[in-house]
Amino acid sequence: MRLAHAIFGVFGLVGVLAFTAHLVIFFYAMAHGSPTPIDREIYRISNHADSAYVTYPWHLAIKYLEIVMLVGLGIAAIGELLLAASRKSKT
Length: 91
Fold this sequence. Notes:
The protein has two helices and two strands. The protein has 91 residues and is mainly α. The chain has one domain (2-16, 24-90).
């Protein structure tokens, strides 16, 4: 039970770190991206009404961090809920 709790804790930590890195990279790309598509900056990212065009590596980094963040936090949340439910059923 402690091992499972530690594993889900690691997933949660990875999710939180990916969330933080995603925020930093996303807002940096929003600030330094082009307002219109030019030359290599053709990948659009948006934040509500604002949008910017960035290069493929920036776009790819943002997408990978989104996936890692959602998977890490999702597994951690579901795993902790299942552990809590199994503890309540044993008592």
